[in-house]
Amino acid sequence: MRCSLTAVVFVLATVVATVVDAGVLLPLERAVPTTGSRRVDVEYLRARDRARHARILRGSGGGGYGGGGVVDFSVQGTSDLSSAGYGLYFTKVKMGTPPKEFNVQIDTGSDILWVSCNTCSNCPQSSGLGIELNYFDTVGSSTAALVPCSDSICASEVQGAAAECSQANQCSYTFQYGDGSGTTGYYVSDAMYFDMILGQSSLANSSATVVFGCSNYLSGELTKSDKAVDGIIGFGPGPLSVVSQLSSRGITPKVFSHCLKGDGNGGGILVLGHILDPNIVYTPLLPSQPHYNVNLQGISVNGQPLSINADVFATSANRGTIVDSGTTLAYLIQEAYDPLVNAITTAVSQSTNPFISKGLQCYLLSTSISDIFPQVSLNFEGGASMVLKPEQYLMHNGVMDGQSLWCIGFEKVQEGVSILGDLVLKDKVIIYDLAHQQIGWANYDCSSPVNVSVATSKDEYINARQTSVSGVDIGILSKLLPVSVVALSVHIAIFSPFL
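Given the sequence above, the corresponding structure tokens read:
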């Protein structure tokens, strides 16, 4: 057993975390634009989600969690489409020597971390998100090293990316997105910096070497300034993702979690680590898949199973069910969508008249949706059910004739993959347990503190004490040994429909 505990935290909001064994916390801030000039309607969200899904389809073809710490992103913002319209998750990371900050979008649907190079020929020079754009300089960083073609990384399979060897013996890549946008560059190895908390209150600087992409060419949506960031950080299951790189060296556990607050001002947490809650249920992740595929077996409305052939959910080259926080809405195969909408509409038929608006099944209400709409349960392999309250499958689309307009947020797909996006993932702890190849969830108030654990072979835990990192209170919970927490100062905004 290790004699220290490590956690890395990206902090922008108050977070309380229980750290067990070693942990890295990355607090996340979620911010979304709410002004009219940046709002978009549901058809824009559909187009963005479907572009992402095109890339997903094109890319589909035992012990503890290991050592490491907990990374926790405190999230601010809202998933209320009526006020925000769209969002983007991005975090501020420090890399290079001397350290330089970069705003990188968080994406669970891709693997690599890449940022724009100072040699980029067409990268945006400003951002409508109100952030300063930065560019990585391999010459200006004394710790940067180009990844040669002989490195095994150059032969790694990365979803959506093609690696090749340049004439200068540089391992380069081309990453293509489903909407036609993409990026080209070369791999670099350099330091990523953290503020490490030693014991209960003292701070020390620390760093870890990571391999990432330095992009010198962008195309499509990535070239536009209105939503520009410095790059993308992939949280996919592949070997080049930051999660995989850090966990393989014992810096973080091989698990990450998030909790997105759906009402009020939004907010939440993204953790490289395991959020603890006694109500969490798990279903297996399907093996040998490039995304977070699960086996959805059925759907119930008000506890009554719907008549859906389970075979329509079976995973194949272009079918199945994926959990994807980068998708804004939720998408169901037609054979499941139609019975679900019919059952919901039947349940509320005495209280409201349904109608179609912009292709969505909608309802006008003068009362609370929780008073008349049923609960929906998505039932998965292993007996795990994801229970959706009305606000987790309905979208508030404004006011019509003095009444609130609510529409079902599930979209129908004629064929292909069912995708569970932010609409159904909000107000829940979601745990991506890569060490044990399972995914778990529990309903949760994401504005509340969370307990975070790195599981080991023993039942270890720590009790809460307060410390401060970058002016933010974080609960470092310890009972057994001195705790060392790595705190990464992160700013995260949400713009989820992009990827």
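The radius of gyration is 22 Å. Try to locate this feature in the token string yourself.
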